[in-house]
Amino acid sequence: MSTKIITPVREFADLLPQEYQDLVARGPYFEPKGIEDLGTFKEIIEEHPHCAGCGVSLGIRLVAASLPSPADTVIIGTPGCSFFGLTQTAVNYSNTAFGNQNAVASGLKRMLRIRYPDQHKDVVVLVGDGGIADIGLDLTLHSWFRREKVTTIMVDNEVYGNTGGQESGMSKQGQVLNMAPVGKQFPKIPVFEMAKVSGCAYAVRVTVASPRKVGRAVRNAILVAREIGPTYIQIYTPCPTNLKFPPNRTLEVAREAEKDYYAYEEFITEEAANYLARL
Amino acid sequence: MVREQTVVSPEHLFFVAPREEVFITGSEAVAEAIKRANVDMAIAYPITPQSESMHLVGDLYAQGYLKDYYRAENEFAVMAAIHGASLGGGRVFTATSGPGTLRAMEMFPVWAGARQPIVCAFMCRGVSLPPSIQPENIEMAMLLDTGMMMFHAENAQDFYDMILKAYIIAEKPDVHLPVGVFVDGFFVTHTRDKVMLPAGDLKLPPYNPQHAPVPAFDMETPPMRIVRDPLLIKSNFISYAANASWHQEVMAAAQRARKHIVRYMGGLLEVENPHAKVFIAASGTAVSQSREALRELRQEGIDAGLIKIKSIRPFPEEEIVASTVNAHLIVVPEFNAGGWLAREIKAALNHNSRVVAGPRVFGGMTMPKELIVNTVKNALKARAGVS
After folding, report:
1. I need a labelling partner for A10 at 20 to 30 A (CA). Which of A127, A135, B39, B215 fits?
2. What is the ipTM of this complex?
3. Which fold has domain A49-278?
């Protein structure tokens, strides 16, 4: 969008809600912002109702601050904890049925390409682990097989948080959770590995304990999805409420996971690497 | 490659443009409608008896009539992707049948709740109760309360006309709801019939996403925060009341469609022989069989009339009451085991003991006119006290 679209005429400016005036005066649209600027500009997200210490809300904030073109970005989600924060973003956000996000994004991206052939409209899927790895796995994989130019971001808290702490396919083996009364019987679903062999041109596994890496990954993923093909980012976003650790330990838990089983990894095709180098 | 066509007004395409007769299948009639519908994008997934129509829509894409088309992974994904494409502000088309309808079920209320003017064709067939691929329209009963508008075509001509008119009615700013256009599979899709068509180089005006009660999902409409405190995530009276009033508005929008249905489709129903005391009321191909039954009844001296119900949602309650005010018998033949149309009619009428819910055929059975004739005669005998 042109910034003219959201700038009110002077005569009406003070009639608009304070929030809207804030978005115009200190929002993310007018000049490039990044994770380093968090706290110095009107954040994209405000007053979300996530639990104290929520890794998902931190993941969403890091992503939102890293969008290369927030004025032309739409986010597709799915029901779950992530929508509490995502509904507060300053970009168009929709979640409809559980698990359908990559199909909705496929249709939307194609239609935006028809309607805006000379303009980048970035379509980003941002949902939890249950939405991608379990109920939406087939639709996620098929969007990658079809090479849909969409960025898919998983905020992986290793649990169904919003429904009350049930096992998801991304929970760790052995973890005792609701619906896993004797501990989960199989390992985390290797969605990151699947991304590499299913058509993604760029994929990153990272945790919220490394915010700069998250920011770089989001930016790269969205740029690569514009021209080359699908991209995937998997962010570990620990859940103190359901994993039963104190909310002030979220970053520590993420840092420990990074050393243990959630090491940073970047996958990029030669074509995507050449494209990023040219920018 | 973009196909050169002339944009004409809906009124011109529907009522003025000269038409020529062709002899085509119902599936081909779908493609003829989409060719003239100025559709941006279609998404397909195969299922009998829908498949052929979506092959032909794919051919239209290859010929440059559509701007995008693909084969998706299952019907839930199709209906989700069609929803996404519609959110993006363009005109879309898809179609499915029976089990595909049920597989996609979760998305239909989403379309209505999001106020997307999606047009979807349903080539009705049996579902697994027990498994059947044959003609049967039980899936319509399952869609009655999804918020979607529902038109039931009798034949290939209806199918062609209703699909095109569905776009124009669905996209009215005071309506802006999805429309399902239904036919009984095989009977209409796989048989040839005479269809009157205007020239193929004419098409409808494009969809205008600015003429809508909800903004397109493209970051071009302020305020940018179009999802603000969504009703789903709050638990308080205000959010329940907001949700309920939005839901009521979806239903009210379907009621506001009535005037457009009257204008473009000539009414929600059609009545033949309005002064009759005995009526057959039907929708879809049961109407064609009822016409044959009517002819035979008249030859036997029974003065019967016919009510063809074209719009199932909104349902023409008042029109049915008015048309049957002097009737003492209303027979409702149906191609399904559940008898959903008879239930709808009974719920609309006073003195609904006048309604005979049947005959009904299913599992792929045809409906011989004798079945309807005998039902009428038996009911008349029973009412006269003759067993």
Report:
1. B215
2. 0.94
3. Rossmann fold (3.40.50)
